[in-house]
Design goal:
67 residues
Length: 67
Amino acid sequence: MLNRMKNDWKNIKFELIEFRNTETYILRQLEPILDKLDEDLTKTMSIASSPFIKFLEKYYFYQYKIT
């Protein structure tokens, strides 16, 4: 699930536009980016509150310790 979320962000384009000729740039179409961010934060919090997270923490700890 986390890898899928990470891959989804690769397809999101961050377009910048100049703000009122001030040489300051802002993100264009911010709403889809904020929606995706909110969705992924909700998923991440759901994973973190899972009773199985301790197992996954141990798995990743040993996986990184070995490599």
